[in-house]
Structures are given as C-alpha cells and as structure tokens.
Design goal:
Elements lengths: L6 E7 L3 H12 L4 E4 L33 H12 L10 H4 L10 H14 L3 E3 L3 E8 L2 E9 L2 E12 L5 H5 L4 E2 L13 E4 L3 H10 L18 H9 L4 H4 L1 E4 L1 H10 L8 E7 L5 E5 L13 H25 L7 E5 L10 E2 L7 H5 L7 E5 L13 H6 L13 E4 L11 E3 L15 H21 L3 H4 L4 H9 L9
Parallel strand pairs: 1-2, 1-6, 2-3, 6-16
Antiparallel strand pairs: 4-5, 5-6, 7-13, 8-11, 8-12, 9-10, 10-11, 14-15
Helix pairs in contact: 1-13, 13-15
Length: 484
C-alpha cells in the first residue's frame, strides 16, 4: 500500500503557516495526518512569500499582556534557545501601541518546522496540487491531487483548508465572500537585502526623526505620543530597536520628482536577524499592485510581473538616495506574492469589526489576538495615512485582546471540512491574515480535526462541546483567557 491508498484521519491542504501548525498540533492530538503542499517546502508567508516583516509581532497587547502562546511561542522559544531568534523586543514606545516584535531567522524557522513535522510523524506530500474535493453529498471525504506521477484520489476523515485563499473550501461548495477587483487591497512581492552600513543609516534616522512614520504607533487607549516616537528615533543606535522603519519622506519626494520612485507605495523596510548578529533589511511594501483577484490566474500573473518592476525601482532609490545602502545587495527575492486580501469562508459564526473593537468573549474560544480591525492598504505613497483614516479601522477597546471562536473555522452546510488561516469566517474589517492569527487558527483546527476523526464526529457536532478541544489547546500552551 502506498501513501495514496491510505485513509488518513486528517488531510491538510496547504503547508503555509496555518497548515504546518494544524499538522503538528493535530498529530500531537493523536491523528494520522497528511499535509499536502504545492511547493517543495513549507512555510507560506513565513518563507515562500516572506519572511513577513512583522514576524511574530503583537504577541502582547497594549496593556502588556501576552495573548499569543501555543505553537507560536514554542517555535520562537526553540529558535531563541539555538541562537536563531531575538528576545521579545518591547521598548516602551512600541509596547504602548502593542506593536512589538519577536524576530526569528526565517530560514532556521523552516528547518525547525521540518524537524517538528518529522518529530510528530506527519506524512508530507510536496510538489503536489490539490485540484478537487471528494464528496458524499454535502460531506467531504477526501481530495483529488495532481502529483508528478499523475492524478490521485486520497481519502480522509476530516479535511482542513489551509490554502490561505479558501481554494479547497470553494471547490467543496462553501459559501465564500470577497470584495470586488476594484476594492481589493494591493498585493506585493517581498525581497531581502544585506550589506547595509547601519551606522550611516541610523545616523540619518537620528538626524531626521520627523522623516519617519509614527501614526501606527499611537493607540487611543494609551498615552503614547508622536514626540515619544520621534525621541526614540533620535536616540537609536541599534536597528533592531526600531522593529521597522517606514518613511524617508523627503528623500522619497525628491526621488518622485526625479522619476526615481514609483507612486504605489511608501518607502521602508522591516528587519531580519541572521547568524552572528547580522541584521538584514526586508522589503515587503516596496511593490503594491491593486485590482488583482487571487482567484484569477491572469490577475496573479500581471501582479507577479508588475511587482518585480516596482521592486527594481524601489531598490534603485535605496541604493542611490538612502545613506548606508550604497554597497548593499539583494540576497533573496521571494517567489510567491504576498496576497494581502482574498476570499473568506462563511462559517457558523462570522467574526466582525465590532467583535474586534469590543474585545469580544466567546465560550468556544480557541485563541486570542489584539490586531486592529480594518487595516487596509492602498496603492499610494501615503499608504499608512490612507489606512489610518479608513472608516473600518478600529482598535480593541482599552488596549485589550479579543477571543477567536471555534465556529469561525466551521463552514456552513458542508461537513467534515475545517478552515484555518486567512480564509476563516470573518467580515472584511476583521480579516485575520497575520502570521500568528493563522497559526492560532491552524493549531485549533488541527486539534479539532483529530478529535473529530477519533470520535467519528463532524466538526459541526464538535461545536456542542469544545471543552476537550480547549483542554488540549491549553496543554499545548495556547492562551484562551486573560485577567481583566
């Protein structure tokens, strides 16, 4: 019997951040797990379309409470112990906004994830596309794949869609929601550089603190101020203390007049730690292409082409205008788009903007978060200003955190299917696309699927009593509540 002939307890479609979390944690809960990924690696937005500049950011809310644990904290801790992660970076001017960083080396994160998948006995099927869904009536019973040796049908008791854009849920007949091509947020292509003379760059930052963004670091429920942010810029001698650096307004505007910058994004970058104390600059906002639906292959093709053109323009700007980048060089161009917005499944509960801003509590909580609602990007050099003025933008009240309920992972009407990651059931303003949110929902979906396979339940039937699910998640280090 080969791997295609096995009936698995859990089949996970997509090996990104939600998929690997579901696979590892589902296997730990006793399931025989198959993880299918179209690339030859796993990690998704962490290493294929990333690293995300905000790697493991906002693990603490503005009150200083840690609201993210589980596999997120475990991977950070294991990498920190081996020298491949930095400690939780929480300077006061960032902590008050709840926008702090816990940086890890994305390449070593990839090594670690492969090790963890092997440790838990997860079966991997790489370089394979999931092309269809097997169904008995409204119940999903497996998937159809296209592998290098041809098409195959694989049976499973529970299937989890971790594709990010809900491709499998759509094929299964789930109701989906997505904004139009005219409204959708722009997508981007990230790249990483080395060889920056950080002394020169930071000297420019200290001399021109007002040339960098500050609005995203102000929280209405704290006493943080523009002056406090500018003071931090003016006293910075270590790039990691900044977390990220967005602005270069005067240089950017001069470049625009000279035809040396494009008008579709602002100028800035995040940071990536590497071995031996090396710090790289990671650019994930330098290209932004709008009017691109992730469900349209022609749109994605156009976006891939245009992003690379914009990145070349952006890189020439940094090389020619920004102090410290004169001898820097590109070390990595990501080979997949960062899809900023896509379809969402309509589930048994639809998470809302009001849930975010009211710090909603749910009996079927499977994780927590403190990311704001309605943080939309637009194709503009003033992307951060445009975002801050949007009607959907909203911060969790009092600087707190909100619960994520299990029912957001269960699609309406279709049985034996769970979703995790970006495509979970939420309205547009509450869209959960950030790394730790995808890993939180992935962890919960993996454990829930394992319990359903063990007990012969559907994911919808599990909604009646999630106590064992919550018990196992707590044992795995998840955070399901915080003191008032």
């Amino acid at each position: 019997m080969n791997g295609f002939d096995v009936t698995y307890d859990v089949i996970i479609c997509g090996g990104g951040t939600s998929g690997v979390s579901a696979a590892i944690c589902g296997a730990r809960a006793g399931a025989n797990v198959l993880l299918i990924e179209r690339f030859g690696t796993v990690g998704g937005q962490f290493n294929v379309a990333g690293p995300p500049g905000f790697t493991y950011s906002r693990l603490f809310n503005p009150k200083g409470q840690k609201d993210t644990g589980g596999i997120v904290e475990e991977t950070h801790h294991r990498l920190y112990e081996t020298g491949h992660a930095l400690p939780h970076m929480r300077p006061a001017w960032r902590a008050k906004a709840g926008y702090t960083f816990s940086y890890v080396d994305p390449d070593w994160w990839t090594f670690l994830i492969f090790d963890m998948l092997e440790e838990e006995g997860v079966t991997l099927l790489l370089d394979t596309w999931v092309t269809g869904v097997l169904k008995d009536g409204n119940s999903v019973s497996g998937v159809r794949v296209e592998a290098v040796d041809g098409p195959h049908d694989i049976r499973g008791k529970v299937v989890i869609d971790c594709t990010g854009e809900g491709y499998i849920a759509a094929r299964a007949g789930c109701e989906m929601k997505c904004v139009s091509r005219d409204e959708i947020q722009p997508h981007t292509m990230a790249f990483t550089v080395d060889g920056v003379d950080w002394k020169k760059t930071l000297q420019y930052v200290r001399d021109h603190p007002d040339q960098f963004s500050y609005k995203h670091l102000l929280n209405p429920y704290t006493d943080n101020t523009k002056e406090a942010v500018y003071e931090a810029y003016s006293k910075c001698y270590n790039p990691i203390e900044l977390g990220e650096l967005m602005g270069f307004y005067e240089l950017r505007d001069i470049a625009l007049l000279n035809g040396d910058w494009h008008p579709f994004s602002g100028a800035g970058f995040f940071f990536t730690p590497k071995e031996g104390g090396v710090v790289q600059a990671h650019f994930q906002h330098s290209s932004q292409v709008d009017h691109c639906l992730p469900t349209d292959a022609w749109d994605l093709t156009r976006c891939n082409i245009e992003c690379r053109k914009q990145n070349q323009i952006a890189w020439r700007f940094f090389k020619n205008y920004v102090p410290g980048f004169e001898h820097a060089y590109i070390t990595k161009q990501c080979n997949e788009l960062r899809i900023r917005e896509g379809p969402r499944v309509v589930g048994d509960y639809v998470y809302t903007r009001d849930d975010v801003i009211n710090c909603a509590r749910f009996d079927d909580v499977i994780g927590m978060s403190s990311f704001r609602a309605g943080a939309y990007h637009v194709s503009s050099v003033d992307v951060l200003s445009a975002v801050s003025g949007h009607k959907d933008l909203g911060q969790p009240k009092d600087g707190g955190s909100y619960d994520i309920p299990y029912r957001c992972l269960v699609p309406k009407k279709i049985e034996n299917l769970l979703v995790a990651g970006k495509c979970i059931s939420a309205d547009r303003a509450a869209y959960m696309r950030y790394v730790q949110q995808t890993m939180i929902t992935g962890q919960a979906a993996g454990v829930a699927a394992a319990l359903c396979a063990r007990d012969g339940k559907t994911p919808r039937e599990l909604e009646k009593d999630v106590s064992e699910l919550q018990k196992i998640l707590l044992e795995q280090g998840a955070i399901l509540s915080l003191p008032d």
